[in-house]
Amino acid sequence: MIVIMNPDATCREVKNVVDAIENVGMEAKIMEGSKQKIVGLIGDKSNINSLSLEALPGVDHTVPISKSYKLASREFHPQSSIVNIGGIKIGRGNFVIMAGPCAVESLEQLLESAKIAKAGGAQFLRGGAYKPRTSPYSFQGLKNEGLKYLAEARNQTGLKVITEVTEVEAVETISKYADMLQVGARNMQNFRLLKEVGQTNMPVLLKRGLSATLEEWLNAAEYIMKEGNNNVVLCERGIRTYETYTRNTLDMSAVAAIKHLSHLPIIVDPSHGTGKWRMVKPMSFAAVAAGADGLMIEMHPDPAKALSDGQQSLTPENYLEVTKGVYKIANFMKQEKLTITQL
Ligand code: PEP
Ligand code: MN
């Protein structure tokens, strides 16, 4: 349930509402609506009926929220959120590109990738140091050595660094090197990991699980936010369907649906979403037009020699061509005020 206060409600009246909620063992979260304050109730609903919140001074009305996730829901937070990563904003018209290799392979490979990523207008360098691989025999990542290379690439280019965290034990170390933590598709329902990243104040990119519904995905975001970390950005990266031509089926409708259901920013990863480098360009363009707040694109200085996901990685030339088009579409959307924030 959320409590909508009168636009002229006093601080004391808001505090009274918060006290009443806390007295029955629930948690109260105050949010700024466009005109008035909103107080959200979280926790055990069993005592909710004893609360006559609408009778309290300063309360305009209450709205029940039937969804299993609250903090991530649009009802709870009507305005689209902006996540700020060291000065780079994502959401509410702030568009970003995250680009780089699937995996950090060497310092040379990463620095080369970072230069190209930046030349194409990316704000973030991506690269996995801890790699979740389908086969245990595949390259598993350079781990801490890779983190050092990422930090070096950041020093040299000024790009923000995003890298995946695959296990609870690595959260602390990775947080020292990265600007944003990535929770990958395979870990979307690793609840211990979600809670752990929720207890940091690091921005988190939460990828959609391989077969997750939107509700499961938003509940995963809720796990992070419930711990106090609201800096969550969602990433649609395709889901498993009966189609085998593509690696995954990129669910572009998820962008529009998430904009309706949630206030969180959402970006699209057309590389994992299709598994085919040739499809990255059209799907990137489509994602921007669909209202995505950004893109995550795999690019490698020499995809044929990549230790992972070479088949879906763009060459530097193709990457530069794709991002040029992406920014044209993003600017057009902005100029024409076509930015899709809420349906
Ligand atoms: C990745 O970004 O390299 C990755 C492993 O992605 P996903 O979790 O979406 O498969
Ligand atoms: Mn990859």
Task: Note down, in words, how this protein is organized.
The protein has 343 residues and is an alpha/beta fold. Helix content is 33%, strand content 18%. It folds into two domains: 62 residues, Phospho-2-dehydro-3-deoxyheptonate aldolase, domain 1 (Alpha-Beta Plaits), CATH 3.30.70; 260 residues, TIM Barrel (Alpha-Beta Barrel), CATH 3.20.20. Bound molecules: phosphoenolpyruvate (PEP) and manganese (II) ion. Phosphoenolpyruvate binds next to loops.
By CATH reckoning, the class of the largest domain would read Alpha Beta
Level of helix content?
25-40%
Radius of gyration: 21 Å
Overall body shape: elongated
Q: Name the bound molecules.
A: phosphoenolpyruvate, manganese (II) ion
- Measured by DSSP, the beta-strand proportion falls in 15-25%
Average of the residue pLDDT scores:
95
* Strand order of the biggest β-sheet: 13-12-11-10-9-8-7-14
Give the class from helix and strand content and strand pairing: alpha/beta
The CATH architecture designation of the largest domain is Alpha-Beta Barrel
Name of the CATH homologous superfamily of the largest domain? Aldolase class I
* Total number of helices: 10
Please give the domain count. 2
What is the fold-level CATH name, i.e. the topology of the largest domain? TIM Barrel
Topology as a string of helices (H) and strands (E): EHEEEEEEHEHEHEHEHEHEHHEH
Main β sheet profile = 8 strands, parallel
Low-confidence stretches: none
Brief overview:
The protein is of the alpha/beta class. It has helices at 11-23, 107-119, 144-157, 171-177, 191-198, 214-226, 253-261, 270-274, 280-290, 316-335, and strands at 2-5, 27-32, 37-42, 59-63, 83-85, 88-90, 96-100, 124-126, 160-164, 180-183, 204-207, 232-236, 266-268, 294-298.
